[in-house]
Amino acid sequence: MTSPHPGNGTVLVLGGTGKTGSRITRLLEASSVPFLAASRSGAGDNGVKFDWMDRATWDLPFGAASPDAPITAVWLIGAPILEMAPLARDFIDLAREKGVRRFVFLSASSVECGGPVHGQVHQYLKELGDAGQIEWAVMRPTWFSENFAETPGHLYTIKAEGKVYSATGDGKVPFVSAEDIAACAVKALTDPEPLNSDLVILGPELLSYADVAAIISSVTGKKVVHENLTQEQLEQRFATFLPPDYSKMLALMDVAIANGSEDRTNDAVLTFTGQQPKPFRETAELSKAAWV
């Protein structure tokens, strides 16, 4: 069960201007693979409007693709709400009706197939794949190295206060670069042979948030420290810019890290892409201008 080579079709990248999407589109462009970068604004040369909360926009990418290169693969990221699975299932069904054969979904290392939120979409893709109706892959990265420079919360507190806030305690995380996630995603989207499985994407080293703060201090020359919070304190911080239920979920994920949920590494990036995953310090060196 294989798809046409991507040269015969267009890749639709949802969240095409985001942390992973922008990197995926750069790699696709470098490989001369046709793509559309979907976002709420639809800005950019290859941009197209798409909004999870406005179903009227869901058809737009399929009309924007060239008739000579219809959309055959989709990079799928869910809406930032806890009830995202029904929306994702409906869009997957729409895309299948439009001729899409391959779906690559962004989930998380901590979410198993059949688990909550992203795990429900993972399960749906697997069921369709097992029935021979689609080709699929689920990317399950751990926490992104770039979160400290490209996520407003961490970026602001590092720059303004010299602090990284979390509820992770001394727990360690194999932080992974969005560049490595994008490389895995592009291979899953474009390889002639479908993955038809999930891929847990981890970085090459285990670091606590205190370790991260120390590395940022080292590359910037400014003092940055980790301040550990309780779950409730972190929820309150998140709730200033996120819905309460989503804030609670994120805070609980930090507590899980404190309890060892991310204390593991693997060689998935090297095995799948042939390239070594980037250590956090390398990402920090590239990002240091954002923190000073």
From TrEMBL:
Residues 91-253 form the NmrA-like domain. GO terms for molecular function: oxidoreductase activity. The keyword Oxidoreductase applies. SUPFAM superfamilies: NAD(P)-binding Rossmann-fold domains. Keywords: Alkaloid metabolism, Oxidoreductase. It comes from the Eukaryota. Transmembrane segments: none annotated. Pathway: Alkaloid biosynthesis; ergot alkaloid biosynthesis. InterPro entries: Ergot_Alk_Oxidoreductase (IPR051604), Ergot_alkaloid_biosynthesis (IPR019901), NAD(P)-bd_dom_sf (IPR036291), NmrA-like (IPR008030). One of its GO terms (biological process) is alkaloid metabolic process. Belongs to the fgaFS/easG family. PANTHER family: PRESTALK A DIFFERENTIATION PROTEIN A, PTHR43162. This is Festuclavine dehydrogenase. It comes from Pleurostoma richardsiae.
